[in-house]
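Troubleshooting entry. The earlier prediction with uridine-diphosphate-N-acetylglucosamine gave an output that would not parse, so I re-checked the input for stray whitespace and re-submitted. Clean input:
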Amino acid sequence: MKALVTGGAGFIGSHLVDHLVAEGLDVVVVDNLSMGDLHNIKHQDEVTVYVEDVRNEKFMQQLLQEEQPDYIYFLAAVASVADSIERPAETHSVNQTAVFNMLEYIRKTALPIKQFLFTSSAAVYGNLPELPKKEDSRVDPLSPYAIDKYATERFVLAYGELYDLPTVCVRFFNVYGPGQNPSSPYSGVLSILTDCLKNNKAFTLYGDGSQTRDFVYVEDVIQALWLITKSDTSHEVFNIANGNEASLTSIIETYETVTGQKLQVKMAPGRDGEVKRSVANIGKLVKLGYTTKWSLEAGLSKYWEGA
Ligand code: UD1
C-alpha cells in the first residue's frame, strides 16, 4: 500500500508520515518547505520526498500517474486564519484550488484510490452559539481561511458522492506538539508560547484571553487519522479534537505551572475573523474507537520536555 502525504514535512504531516511508515506503508511526500522541514520526518530514508508546491498542477498530475497512491492525505495548506486575511488570493490557491485540481484529475483519469482525506478546520463553525460543535452543527466561516476550508470540504464530499470517489474530511481543532514551527507570527499559539517561555521572549496576547480553544496533542490526531483510514469510511466529516474547552488565559496558566516559568505578556487588540469559543463533540470519532490519550497537562509536559 502506498500513501501520498501533501504537507508531509509539516508539523502534523510529518507525524503522520512517521506513523504510516511504522504501519508498513510506502510513503511519498510533497512539500514546498514553506513551513515544513525535512528534519521533522524521522524515517526520512524510508520516504520518497518531492520538494514541490502542490499548486504545480503538471507536477502533481505526473506524480499521481507515476506513484499511483492508494491513500491520499491532503495536509498541505496555509494554516492560519490571520495569514489568510493578509493574503487571501495566495492562501486560496493553496487551500482550495490545489485540492480541487487534484480531485478533478482523479475523477478524469479514474485513478484507483482507496481514500482521499482532506484536512479541514474547526474554523468552519465560526461564532455560532451552539457548543460543543458537532459535525452536523451549522457553519459560519468568517475568514478566507475558513471559507476555503468549508468550500473545499463541499467539493471533496460532492466529488465523493457524484463520482463515487472514496473521500473523507476531517476538521482539526487546535493541534499542538513537537515539530510545530514557531517562526511566523501566524504560527500556532502553543508553538509561540513554547518559544517565548524557552527563550524568555514577551508573548503578545490578542484579545483579553477569554477566547477558548480545544487543544489536541498531535499523537491523538494521528491516532484519529489512522482510525479513519482503517475504517474505510467515505463521504463523512469528522471532528478531530480533545473534546475540552480551555480559555487562552487558563492555557497560559497551565503551561506556566507545567514548566515552572513565568510568561511576560503584552496585550494587543483581538484579531479580525477570529472565533471566540471553540470546542468539539468527538462522539463520531469515539465510535470508530478513538480515545484521547493526552490531557492538556500531559501533552504540554511532553511537548516542553522535547522543546
Ligand atoms: C488554529 C490553526 C488552524 C486550525 C484551527 C482550528 C494554527 C496556526 N492555526 O487556528 O490551522 O484550522 O486552529 O480550530 O495552528 N494568539 C495570541 N498570540 C499569538 C498567537 C495566537 O494571542 O501570538 C491567539 C489567537 O488570537 C487565537 C488563539 O491564540 O485567539 C489561537 O490562535 P492560533 O494558534 O493562531 O489558532 P486558531 O486561529 O484557533
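This one parsed fine. The longest helix spans residues 88-109.
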